[in-house]
Amino acid sequence: MPITKRKRNQVLTKTKKKTPEKKELLVKKLKQSLKKYQRAIVFQYKNLSTNPLKEIQQAWKADSKLFIGKNKVMQVGLGRNEEQSATKNSYLLSPFLKGETGLLLTNKTLQEIQEYCDTYKIPEFARAGHISDQTIVLKEGIDTLKGFAHSIEPYLRKLGLNTQLINQQIVLNEKFILTQEGKPLTVEQTKLLRLMDKKLAYLEIAPLCVLEKNGTFKKL
Question: In this protein, which residues make up the domain named Large ribosomal subunit protein uL10-like insertion (predicted)?
Answer without folding.
Answer: 126-197
